[in-house]
């Protein structure tokens, strides 16, 4: 299969999606922030000096997903109908699992928007906690699931 964002001359190319059918499209992306027990406790107890870390990161993730086309040059500007950011505080493994779900009715998928949303939320968590733990690590950012369009449903668990 050829790369869709490269034309026959090897040049960058924004794909023409005008002939594609409008379908409901959805994607879920996830990533993790590994942090110290102290930083995690401050997030969980809402006692961080910068305020409600999860609330700010949620809004940032939503904004990030909506700004995807401004950040990734060949992405189409999309009118997202839903962006949902969820956090799971995993004390045992000292991490915050961040998940972004994006949805729309359109002609192209929303994987890049979900990935952008999760990354911006993770970066915001990092920014808000860096004074307590500058050694945090962002990892395992990936698409978990997508659906819609001619390829239908795809899930990481199903390959």
From TrEMBL:
Q: Which reaction does it catalyse?
A: (8S)-3',8-cyclo-7,8-dihydroguanosine 5'-triphosphate = cyclic pyranopterin phosphate + diphosphate
* Protein EC: 4.6.1.17
CDD domains hit by this protein = MoaC_PE
This protein's pathway reads: Cofactor biosynthesis; molybdopterin biosynthesis
Give the record's keywords alphabetically.
Lyase, Molybdenum cofactor biosynthesis
Report the top EC class in one word: lyase
User: Per UniProt, what is one Pfam family of this protein?
Assistant: MoaC
- BP terms from Gene Ontology: Mo-molybdopterin cofactor biosynthetic process
Single annotated GO MF? cyclic pyranopterin monophosphate synthase activity
Q: Where does substrate bind?
A: 74-76, 112-113
Could you tell me which residue ranges the Molybdopterin cofactor biosynthesis C (MoaC) domain spans?
14-149
Active site: residue positions = 127
- Show the PANTHER family listed in the entry: CYCLIC PYRANOPTERIN MONOPHOSPHATE SYNTHASE, MOLYBDOPTERIN COFACTOR SYNTHESIS PROTEIN A
Quaternary structure and interacting proteins, as annotated:
Homohexamer; trimer of dimers.
Q: What does this protein do?
A: Catalyzes the conversion of (8S)-3',8-cyclo-7,8-dihydroguanosine 5'-triphosphate to cyclic pyranopterin monophosphate (cPMP).
Protein family according to the UniProt entry: Belongs to the MoaC family.
> Which protein is depicted?
Cyclic pyranopterin monophosphate synthase
